[in-house]
Amino acid sequence: MKQSIYKNQNILVLGLAKSGTEATKILLRLGARVTVNDRTPIEDNEQAKQLQDEGAEVVCGSHPETLVHEGLDLLVKNPGIPYDHPLIKKALHMRIPVITEVEIAGEIAACDMIGITGSNGKTTTTTMTASMLENSPKNPKAAGNIGEVASKVADASLPEDILVVELSSFQLQGTNRFKPHIAVFLNLIEAHLDYHGTMDDYAQAKARIFRNQSKDDVLIYNADDPLVSSLAEQADSTCIPFSTQRIVDGGSYIKDGDIVVLGEVLMRRDDFSLPGDYNLSNGLAAATAAMKAGADPEQVRHVLASFEGVKHRLQYVDTVNGVRYFNNSKATNVPATVKALEAFPGERIILIAGGLDRKLSFDDLYAPMGQSVKGLVTYGETADKLAEAGRSAGVETILKTTTLEEAVRKAEEISEESDIILLSPACASWDQFRTFEERGDTFIEAVARLKEDKL
Fold first, then answer.
1. What is the distance between the alpha carbons of residues 315 and 433, in angstroms, rounded to a whole number?
2. What distances in angstroms separate CA 197 from CA 75, 167, 200, 267, 322, one per listed residue?
3. Is there a contact between 173 and 272 (Cβ–Cβ < 8 Å)?
4. Of 134, 160, 396, 422, most Cβ neighbours within 10 A?
5. 380 is in an annotated binding site
6. Is 283 part of any known ligand binding site?
7. Name one GO cellular component term (predicted).
8. DSSP label of 363
9. Domain span at 148
10. Is 128 exposed, middle or buried (0-12, 13-18, 19+ CB in 10 A)?
């Protein structure tokens, strides 16, 4: 299949970045005739120049609609490009398939795949799953949003490997035949509606992770999430639930303080390394997927007991003068911040929040802020809205700042020994930062400078 499926096809790759670049290289090697179209002019586009040297036709700086024509067999889009892009609209109107590079990964992989999706927790679960599969009969290769482009890893895969792929709704919407052998569906909350349009469209994009599965495949799903559970009822797969709230038949759960995975008691819940029920939920999902794929239970147990988390996802940063600092920059929406606050029951928290104003409500923060937040420091476009939310929640101390660096300083000023200062913005980063990673790194650097000043 690797050698023939795309041979002699006329393919347009729209948008480069990492995914488009890797997809083009693979398609060229598989014998396709590839045209690359990217908005960055060729003189400033090193990736396009490289692909041109490798045999691709390159059109950069604009998006001529003539690139989509009757002789085009396939359009491969960068996941971030919306479906109202003129070239994509024209292709769909002409019934030309529009895919993302994840579809290519599924077609060319020489081994089984575990696909992991959900609104929150994908990276943590993917990382844990891959770690749990170490020292097993299968050689785990993590890919997707977690690091290497999925198609690149799939192209180099061997039968003895197993791909563990983090999948976004943007990637999944661009799939037609894609089918991981094991699919993991973590949760579903209102997100990315500026891209998908409606909650139903967003949910249906996520559900593509199992749409092509058969009874021989496995869907591991969150029984505590009503929408995920409802979608799972439509699956033809062998469905395995997991739950932190109740015992679920044939699945994974907590019983009498024990973590039970597929009927096997692995360890005490108190020995799990990460805070919060949502991390426990991720751990159950990862353990279930890993054990279904043949992981050694002892390795699964070791990861559950020792996993230190993923950078920018409730990451412990440092302790300064008895105050612990946590970086949860990945919390780009309200539900993620709610879960972060709930991860520290009984603690005194100073919350740093703010970012891009997407005109969304912060009402769901009232209850958790009222329970544990002693101080709120806001910044960025949503500083005023979040401050108002804090007042409605009864937070005793509220400070508004302009930048994240200033917010860290203000949070330290109102802190006392044993407090937690938590960056969990509840907003996207794009008002002041290019990515949530850049935002988290800025927080880490601000904490380091603060510590130096205190020495």
1. 19
2. 22, 19, 9, 43, 46
3. no
4. 422
5. no
6. no
7. cytoplasm
8. G
9. 104-306
10. buried
Q: How many CB atoms lie within 10 A of CB 419?
A: 21
236/133 same-domain check: yes
Residue 20 annotated in ligand binding: no
What pLDDT does residue 1 have?
Answer: 47
CB 421, CB 322: distance < 8 Å: no
> Is 121 marked as binding a ligand?
yes
Q: Which residues contact 434 (CB under 8 A, 6 or more apart)?
A: none
Are residues 288 and 164 part of one domain? yes
Beta bridge mates, 264: 261
Tell me if 119 is assigned to a ligand binding site.
Answer: yes
For residues 250 and 156, state if they share a domain.
Answer: yes
Count H helices and E strands in the chain, helices first. 17, 20
Annotated binding-site residue? 120: yes
- d(CA 339, CA 188) in angstroms, rounded, equals 13
Do 249 and 320 fall into the same domain? Answer: no
pLDDT digits (tens, 9 = 90+) for 381-437: 999 999 999 999 999 999 999 999 999 999 999 999 999 999 999 999 999 999 999
pTM: 0.82
Is residue 384 located within the same domain as residue 345? yes
**In this structure, is residue 3 part of a structural domain?**
no
Task: Please state, in angstroms and rounded to a whole number, the distance separating the CA atoms of residues 179 and 186.
Answer: 17
In angstroms, the CA 395 to CA 375 distance is 6
**Cα three-residue angle 411-121-215, rounded to 5 degrees:** 170
